[in-house]
Design a protein that fits this description.
The complex is a heterodimer. Chain A is α+β, with helices and mostly antiparallel strands. Chain A has helices at 4-13, 31-40, 156-172, 176-197, and strands at 68-74, 77-85, 87-92, 95-99, 106-110, 113-119, 122-128, 131-135, 140-145, 148-150. The longest helix of chain A has 22 residues, at 176-197. Chain B is an alpha/beta fold. Chain B has helices at residues 2-9, 17-26, 51-87, 93-99, 125-139, 154-164, 182-195, 224-233, 251-327, and strands at residues 37-40, 46-49, 109-115, 146-152, 168-172, 200-208, 214-222, 244-246. Classes of the chains: A alpha+beta, B alpha/beta. Chains A and B meet through helix 1, helix 2, strand 1, strand 2 and strand 5 of A and helix 3, helix 4, helix 5, strand 7 and strand 8 of B.
């Protein structure tokens, strides 16, 4: 019983503000879910849902804001979180897409390429492997990528080597799976190549 | 406790390490005169032996050392993985911002993905996850609805195999043999998506709130068909239709990629959070067991001293009464 004591104490203290990254002071929850749960399983507290851990997003403003808020996240890091910038150019599968404040709400699939973030006069370029970009009506852009590196961290000689290797694999590939893998390698490396030169 | 009663009955029997460890881990056992035993010394003189108490004290001290070491190991592992879990927290937020969170959605095919640990001695987090999973099973049971389990980790498998064996679709263990990374989790997610038919996936895990508090959480991921249906009918996902879709040939294809990507991202975060919670729970479990071992050691030391002093007093009394019988 005494083992539960610190846990219960922590639960009762949870309502006071604590400096943790993503739990708001009053967790909002889906009331329909909570009620349905309580009816069937009255003894156990209903589990939390991701919505209660997220900061609520701003509502759509009536006039177009001057800056666009960018969240650029990777599996191992949040590269940019809630950064206000002027423009973002993302490598969608249909080509490079520029996103300005007041852009129409879009879901875009990304291909390997350069993403550039324009803030005033400074431009930060990242090479993105692939992922998704969501642009919401309230001028918030979320870019979720699997891997991203700043362009100056890329080694050109390795890129050339990789490109040659995958082109050779593509020509010698026998099964569909090998062909697909080699094709992906070629795409990524040629995008890297053009990123370095262009 | 049955074990303590057995000890009292067999005064001399030396309690094996395992049962004494279980008694420490549960709560203190009063070890008083039950551990005294009488031995026949030389010339038939009787002396009370402190051997058993001393052996018991040695084993309790060893257990305390072990649990303290386990706590240190868990603390260092927690430090390492907590950083990665907190960095990955941004990963699922864009998806929830876009697609919302609909745990109360009613669909025909539910799949519950339960995340648990492989190793034990981590407090109650695995039981909590299993209880919540079973709760979801009950919540989603009904005519022409089917619910299946996909289990990650040995502990949940052991608990769920007992009564829901035929509802388990897949079991994946030894997840943390190599340090967790996104590639591994995305391959796993791909595996699950290929082999399991689902309308809604519910991932049940323990979210790491702090070292002493872990919140059971459920993340819901809908299949592309359900997303399409909900956005057209204008439910919670009604806004989704207003989004333009770039890339891919059809909206359905992009939605499919989107839901698969969402699943792998949410899984990655869930697995990391659960690993953090496991280490934190293990830390607090080992901490309380070393504290219990310390208390038990104090009690045993008192018993030992009492026994030792009693045997000295008895010897003195015998000597003095013998001497007074000779002289007077």
């Amino acid at each position: 019983m005494f083992r539960q004591a610190p846990r219960l104490l922590a639960r009762s203290m949870m309502a006071r503000s604590r400096p943790f990254s993503d739990v708001p002071a009053q967790p909002a929850s889906d009331s329909a879910f909570v009620e349905a749960w309580k009816k069937v399983i009255p003894n156990i507290d209903p589990p939390q849902t991701p919505l209660s851990f997220m900061k609520p997003r701003p509502t759509t403003p009536s006039s177009i804001p001057s800056k666009i808020t960018v969240n650029f996240v990777l599996p191992y890091q949040s590269e940019l979180s809630a950064k206000e910038v002027d423009m973002v150019i993302i490598p969608a599968t249909t080509g490079q897409m520029g996103v300005l404040p007041g852009h129409v709400a879009t879901i875009a699939e990304l291909k390997p390429g350069i993403m550039s973030v324009h803030e005033g006069s400074e431009v930060t370029k990242y090479f993105v492997s692939s992922g998704f970009a969501f642009i919401h009506a309230n001028s918030v852009a979320d870019v979720v990528a699997v891997e991203a590196v700043p362009v100056d961290h890329i080694d050109p000689s390795l890129v050339q080597k990789g490109l040659a290797e995958f082109t050779q694999k593509l020509s010698s590939a026998s099964t569909d799976l090998e062909k697909a893998e080699a094709q992906i390698g070629v795409d990524v490396h040629s995008a890297l190549n053009s990123a370095l030169t262009g | 406790m049955a074990m303590a009663a057995a000890l009292r009955r067999e005064g001399r029997r030396f309690a094996p390490l395992v049962s004494s460890s279980s008694s420490i881990l549960n709560s203190g056992v009063t070890a008083r005169s039950s551990l005294l035993s009488e031995e026949l010394g030389p010339q038939g003189a009787r002396s009370i032996s402190t051997q058993i108490v001393r052996n018991r004290m040695k084993s309790v001290k060893n257990i305390q050392k072990i649990t303290k070491a386990m706590k240190m190991v868990a603390a260092s592992k927690l430090r390492a993985i907590q950083v990665r879990a907190e960095n990955s927290r941004g990963l699922w937020q864009p998806f929830t911002a876009l697609l919302g969170d609909t745990p109360s959605i009613g669909v025909k095919k539910n799949v519950i993905v339960t995340i648990s640990s492989d190793k034990g001695l981590c407090g109650g987090i695995n039981s909590t996850s299993v209880k919540i999973s079973k709760g979801f099973y009950k919540l989603n049971s009904g005519p022409d609805k089917e619910t299946k389990y996909v289990i990650l980790g040995e502990k949940a498998k052991a608990q769920l195999v007992r009564d829901s064996k035929k509802h388990i679709e897949m079991c994946i263990t030894e997840l943390q043999k190599n340090p967790l990374n996104y590639t591994q989790v995305s391959v796993l997610a791909d595996d699950i998506l290929k082999n399991v038919e689902y309308d809604a996936l519910r991932i049940v895990f323990n979210k790491f709130h702090s070292v002493v508090s872990f919140l059971p959480t459920v993340a819901t991921i809908l299949s592309p068909e359900v997303v399409e249906r909900e956005s057209e009918s204008g439910g919670k996902l009604g806004d989704l239709d207003s989004y333009e879709v770039e890339g891919g040939e059809t909206k359905a294809e992009v939605l499919q990629n989107l839901t698969e990507f969402q699943f792998s991202c949410v899984m990655f975060n869930a697995v990391l959070e659960n690993a953090c919670s496991e280490q934190g729970a293990r830390m607090s479990a080992m901490d309380s067991s070393s504290r219990n071992a310390g208390e038990m050691l104090d009690r045993l030391t008192l018993t030992y001293n009492r026994t030792r002093q009693a045997s000295i007093t008895t010897e003195l009394i015998e000597i003095i009464s013998g001497a007074s019988a000779l002289t007077g």
